[in-house]
Amino acid sequence: MSGNVLDVAGLHAGYRGAEAVRGISLKVKAGEIATVIGANGAGKTTLLNAIMGILPARGSVTFLGQSLNRLPVEERVTLGLSLVPERRELFSSMSVEDNLRLGGFRFRGRKRDAAGRALEEIFAIFPRLGERRRQLSGTLSGGERQMLAMGRALMNEPRLLMLDEPSLGLAPLVVRDIFQVIAGLRDRGVAILLVEQNARAALQAAGHGYVLENGVCVLEAPGAELRANERVVAAYLGLSQA
After folding, report:
1. Tens digit of each residue's pLDDT (9 = 90 or more) over 9-20
2. Three-class SS of residue 91?
3. CA–CA distance, 4 with 21 (Å, rounded to integer)
4. Separation between Cα atoms, residue 53 and residue 188, nearest integer Å
5. Which domains does the chain show, CATH number per domain?
6. SS3 content of the chain, % helix, strand, coil (to 5)
7. Closest Cα to residue 119, out of 87, 91, 150, 151?
8. Percent of the chain clearing pLDDT 90 (strictly above)
9. Where are the beta strands (DSSP E) in 42-150?
10. pTM of the model
């Protein structure tokens, strides 16, 4: 596959009249992981919410060649755009399987076997969820909850998956597993826009990266170049420059 799945140009967005993102432009290519790194408050979550249509925004958002500027969230999901929010927002009193089925927005009104095939595909990606399909989601571990949130988003068979801090609060070994899954999704042809405070893991996974500071993109380069950039190393990777 070639070309851009997502093209964002001059995006402005914020809350209660205060702009948290100012003039951001970025692209995500087909079959690529692109990452946005930055400190708390840099505007990363605002950026994802604006692309998803959760927040009003100014600027241009184009997905698979189609402008999203006037489309509500539901239509963006139908087109193949999915977001895994930072807080995961699962229904803790519902089972793993029921949480996943709720994510199958695209399958509403279609034959049950279409949703069933999508469900089995999720269990193939996340075998642990298959083992716990009848378990209440509120009883899952942090890593399992992240897997469930990702699986729910994947139920719509998205062309672009946006992930907001997928490693947040997880143990290092679980983080490694999550990033292996993310790389596997890319290999399956899912384009990924990854927002992360774990800059090291994000830049190792990403083909291209963007650095946000105070709502502005201050650096953009291939992931390998950003890993070697002195400014990025000093600010985000925690390595001595001595």
Report:
1. 999 999 887 899
2. coil
3. 22
4. 26
5. 1-80+158-242 (3.40.50.300), 93-157 (no CATH)
6. 40, 30, 30
7. 151
8. 77
9. 57-63, 66-67, 81-84
10. 0.90
